[in-house]
Amino acid sequence: MTDQDFYTFPFSSKKEWINQVKKDLKGKDFDESLTSICWDKIKIQPFYTSEDLEGTAAGYKFHPKSIIPEISPRIWTNLVSVFPEDDKSANEEILHALQNGADGIVIHLEGSENLNKVLNAVHTEFISTNILPTGDTGQFFLLIEDWIHSIHLKPNMLHGSILWNPCDELFRSGKNFDLGVDQAAKAINDFKEFTDYYPLTMDLSRYATTGGTGIQELIYGLGEVVELIDGLSKKAISPTQIFENLAFHTAVGDSHFAEIAKIKALRKLIVELAGNYGVNLNMEDIHIITSTSTWSKSLLDKNTNLIRQTYEVMAGILGGGNSLWVKPAAGKNASSVEKRIARNIASILKEESYLDKVMDPAAGSFYLQTLQKEIEKSVIEGLQNLEENGGWLKCFENRKLHEEIRRSRETIQKQVLADSKIKVGANKYLAKGKLENHLPFVPLIEKDYQLLPSRASYFVEQNYLSIT
Predict the structure, then answer these.
(1) What is the pLDDT of residue 431?
(2) Is the Cβ–Cβ distance between 300 and 457 less than 8 Å?
(3) Neighbour count for residue 60 (Cβ, 10 Å)
(4) How many C-beta neighbours within 10 Å does residue 110 have?
(5) What are the pLDDT digits (tens) for 228-272?
(6) How far apart are CA 8 and CA 12, in angstroms?
(7) What pLDDT is attached to residue 467?
(8) Are 278 and 58 in contact (CB under 8 A)?
(9) Which of 15, 233, 419, 443 is deepest in the core (most CB within 10 A)?
């Protein structure tokens, strides 16, 4: 036990510290000088103490304890993107990635691929197999089912998720939600024996990558969950079945500490939401996929994006992501070097930074725990307002949802354009000469029902790249 007599300084309360700081400011306003606003909602203080907490800080369990002895307490899956152009090259790319640091894949499928060839010699029982449909959903699910039956895949030999849910159909076409609910009910029944596979994934990231704040991401993402439960209850699918078959995908942006708190808040809010439906859900049973955000990247200097990827992955680990998905800024056009760097970030943070040695390193942080509490409070208030306005589907149909996200997006893009918000590599410290390395600019053309990924630096890129 620590000898309290060792500390010769008298205890000072937070109020006393603030009073001293105000004296040192010599008339300057405390809030204007030292506080800031996170995501338009939360005031960030210059420091936090134990007085800001309610009770003691408790660590989270992000996943069950591994059955493998002597393994590190913190486990995550390192995912890589695969865009099949042909079955053979896709298979070669998957095998190469798995042999060089990846332990999971995200395959973008149109529905016409031959999965037996794409996944030839891939031992799905040892990796995370995540599949994202890019074409017709019905055809996509038939492709998955045919592949499972053709190789007689046993339930314990498939891990991962299908990155789709019925709300995706609305953002693709503006309709087909009811058909999507029918497909979701069928997927839950078809995959009921595959207990380690999630046939549905709530895509909260769609709001973050299109310009929404972290709070808006959680409000509308969890609003989708409520809408899905309402829709599936009419198909005799219980809330328990839904939560057992549901993964969650969130994007991690450049507000590092806020993103850590956001992911932890998401896990807690899912548990509370499930409890409201009478479902007893443990925190460690929730599967969260964290991906790097397109919103935080810039086309003006793709090398700077590599740095952003690193601290976004760090936030994903510290926040409790179960799968880490690093998306190269160039997407499907990424070079082999960019793919290798994306694949190796999580490995370096494990093997050299030892972020896998503690389950919840952020536990006990006065700042993060207070920030998480404020995020949860704002999200709960937002969900209540959403329900008072008719729910998520109503806000989609009257486009109130789109208006709010686009307003947030445009506000930040104008701030970056006016240099009132600094974006390194875009409006500050631009790469020049041999270091200059731009990505191609494509104008964003959005239909009224869509929310397409964009970037905070979009207006700057539009001005600069169209001139050059």
Answers:
(1) 81
(2) yes
(3) 16
(4) 13
(5) 999 999 999 999 999 999 999 999 999 999 999 999 999 999 999
(6) 12
(7) 58
(8) no
(9) 233
Count of alpha carbons within 13 angstroms of residue 97, beta-carbon side: 31
User: What's the length of the chain?
Assistant: 468
93 has pLDDT over 90: yes
For residue 56 the two structure tokens come to: 């003691």
For the chain, domain boundaries = 4-52, 77-372
**End-to-end Cα separation, the chain, in angstroms:** 66
| 8-state DSSP, 346 | H
The CA distance from 280 to 265, in Å, is 18
Token match 């009224």: residue? 448
Among 123, 153, 131, which residue's Cα sits nearest to residue 84? 131
77-372 homologous superfamily: Methylmalonyl-CoA mutase (3.20.20.240)
Q: Give the single-character DSSP code of 85.
A: S
Amino acid at 457: S
* Contact between residue 205 and residue 296 where contact means Cβ atoms under 8 Å apart: no
CA distance 304 to 311: 12
Tokens at residue 9, please?
Answer: 């300084």
Tokens linked to 355: 């972020």
